[in-house]
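Cast an eye over this sequence plus tokens and explain the fold to me:
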Amino acid sequence: MNPPGDERPLAQLFVDEFTRAGVESRLIETPSPGGASRVGRAAAWARVPGTGARAPIVLLSHLDVVPAEGEGWAFDPFSGAVVGGYVVGRGALDAKGVGVVHLLTLLALAERTTPLERDVIFLATPDEETGGQHGAAYLLEHHRDLLGGAEYLLTEGGGILMSEIGAPNIWGVTIAEKAPCWMRLRTEGVGGHASSAGPGGAVPRLVRALARIAEIETPVRVIPEVERMFREMAPLAAPEDRGGFQALSRSLAEESAFRDRFLSSGRRAALVRNTVTLTVIHAGSSTNVVPPEARAEIDSRVLPGESCLAFIESIRQVVDDPEVEIEPKLAFESRTAPADTPLFAAIARVAAELDPGSFVVPRVIAGFTDSHYFRDHGIIAYGFVPRWLPARETRGIHGVNERISVANLDRGVDAMLRILDELDTAEAAAR
């Protein structure tokens, strides 16, 4: 769980499994800043060698999970209970289940007598849930050689959305993500007894700032990747929305009824505007004591191509109070991966084989993964894990009763192997 991290035991478990199968593997120590971690942090790396005719492909997952409380869970969220054919627990989807699919994929490749043209590299990192600076970023800075000049990477962030009304399934391959623009707000005031507090205290000042921020309505902007995503999903939209999906930017600007319907969905609205969400407030600890300081944290996500620093400056202008400090907590640029690659085409061909009639869509997501670190180094990174999930199960990510079926894990391994084989076969034929 992150915080505090403590991912080392899981990293060691992966390495032990590879070692038993005779697969080259390593445990990689990673930083544990602040001394909060009790047992230490680490990453797991393994490699099944290919012929070397092509650059490697990396299968990336992360070891850490967000916190989970027992309330609302049918079972202890950290028990890993298997009930009714489902693994139930924190990380079943995000992202220990991803790591298991990748582990089993490499173990299956290691049993073959004929290698692929590419090395297939397993990488499971710590710290993704809090930004990845002490996980993926550290590994790329200090151990990039372990990637062997990789060309491609597959990780979380996309998958197969199952239709619940008889429509085709959607194979969503994420090519772009919104970028985090997390910020901290801090105010100071005179502390003292609450019975005689004045209006200039830290808490009232912070509350006024947050009230102004809560009223912000960020402008709508449709980036080309989102335009394409909805255009390709238009045949699956409700009849009254198909025209709007086919020309999203024009429809949002000119058709008020469509605009209202589209923006009424928080998930859709987040793809066409920057978002601002208050998540943390810290102030006093006693009812009758005025605290001298108040703090808050905001989770903002900005569209690809926009600057977090510029967005924070716009927040400062809205707050219009120099006594409110606003500073970035986590920020990085978002890059887009191309969709016209042999790997994307291989995924599409496997989709046609395993899921006839399905739609393969290049996606943009409102969340973020560690993909951006690898894209920054020239690796083509897609968010895609082959698992078939109805919408109701995706709500388990960061929620209660997170689960995935054992059959889905098995099916995911088979699909991943087919994708790697298809990529290998197509590229060999093209030579």
About this structure: Residues 224-269 form one domain. The CA atoms of residues 4 and 161 lie 32 Å apart. The longest strand covers residues 179-188.
